[in-house]
């Protein structure tokens, strides 16, 4: 028991609350990254207009092949990242099952 008389949460409850906090933090990080990306795009469009004297749509039309190349590279990076995350998750799951089998076989 805790000093104040309250029962201490079990390992599963503590782990569940930690996962909830991690999920909340990751969600906040994602929102922050999205806002930063929008702000960076806005600054980039403003800079293009100021330096080159063209609007963002004109600049995008002129640099269309380069823009597509960057999008393809980003998409491939995203797919690789998701694949790595999935592989890590599957590996953790496999190892947990293996540990559980060892415990069950004892």
Structure description:
The chain is mostly helical and 106 residues long. The protein has 2 domains: 45 residues; 51 residues. Helix content is 86%, strand content 0%. The chain is elongated and about 75 Å long. The mean pLDDT is 86. Keywords: Membrane, Transmembrane, Transmembrane helix.
Order of helices and strands: HHH
Number of helices: 3
Structural class: mainly alpha
Radius of gyration from CA coordinates: 24 Å
In percent, how much strand structure appears in the residues?
Answer: under 5%
Number of domains: 2
Low-confidence stretches: none
N-end to C-end Cα span: 31 Å
Give a count of the beta strands, DSSP E runs of length 2 or more. 0
Major β-sheet, in short? none
Helix content: over 70%
Round the mean pLDDT to the nearest integer and report it: 86
Which quaternary structure do these chains form?
A: single chain
Keywords: Membrane, Transmembrane, Transmembrane helix
